[in-house]
């Protein structure tokens, strides 16, 4: 895929972004328990949401959250969601989306981008984040990994 681009969410892409079909077994990894518990601590104004378009088709979406003063370390400069359509996976869409978010973090003067994910499982995203250079900082109290990418 050479024609990927990121766009802000619009009326015409929102429905497609919200109904991306993942591979069987992946749904359980979309929101790790740590993020589920922290959801009410995320300020809506801190969200940075983009869809990934391949031509006219929405093939992925990413939501970042930027809130440097948040009491929760996990919510200061983070990937909150990243999803890629099942039939578009394995072709660099997820990497493209995360790099776009990392560029945004850099432009805000931030020195790292973090993520929380549930480790293990054949369908989980652990290998993806490791391939992108994220390093595990610690395990959360719910057994998720809190990992960071130096920018
Ligand atoms: C995780 C996810 C976003 C990856 O998207 P993707 O477009 O398939 O990933 P990419 O094609 O950009 O892969 C980038 C790198 O990660 C590696 N990778 C991705 N998924 C992998 C897997 N399941 N196993 C091993 N390596 C994997 C790729 O091989 C590639 O490495 P390389 O460039 O060294 O070859 C996608 O699988 C997904 O939407 N999963 C369900 C939702 C989810 O778990 N989100 C994360 C919540 S925290």
Automatic annotation (TrEMBL):
Keyword Transferase: yes
Keyword Acyltransferase: yes
UniProt-listed PROSITE patterns: GNAT
InterPro entries per the UniProt record, alphabetical: Acyl_CoA_acyltransferase, GNAT_dom
Domain of life, per lineage: Bacteria
Pfam families: Acetyltransf_1
CDD domains cross-referenced by the UniProt entry: NAT_SF (cd04301)
Enzyme class label: transferase
EC number: 2.3.1.-
Residues in N-acetyltransferase domain copies: 4-151
Keywords: Acyltransferase, Transferase
Gene3D superfamilies: 3.40.630.30
MF term (GO), any: acyltransferase activity
Name this protein carries in UniProt: GNAT family N-acetyltransferase
Organism this protein belongs to: Curtobacterium subtropicum
């Amino acid at each position: 895929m050479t024609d990927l681009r990121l766009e802000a969410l619009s009326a015409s892409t929102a429905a497609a972004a919200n109904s991306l079909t993942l591979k069987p077994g992946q749904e359980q990894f979309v929101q790790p328990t740590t993020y589920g518990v922290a959801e009410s601590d995320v300020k809506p104004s801190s969200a940075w949401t983009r869809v990934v378009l391949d031509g006219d088709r929405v093939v992925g979406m990413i939501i970042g959250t930027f809130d440097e003063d948040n009491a929760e370390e996990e919510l200061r400069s983070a990937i909150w969601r990243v999803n890629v359509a099942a039939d578009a996976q394995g072709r660099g869409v997820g990497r493209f989306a995360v790099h776009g978010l990392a560029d945004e973090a850099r432009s805000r003067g931030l020195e790292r981008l973090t993520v929380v994910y549930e480790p293990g499982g054949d369908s989980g995203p652990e290998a993806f984040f490791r391939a992108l250079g994220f390093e595990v900082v610690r395990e959360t109290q719910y057994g998720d990994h809190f990992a960071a990418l130096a920018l």
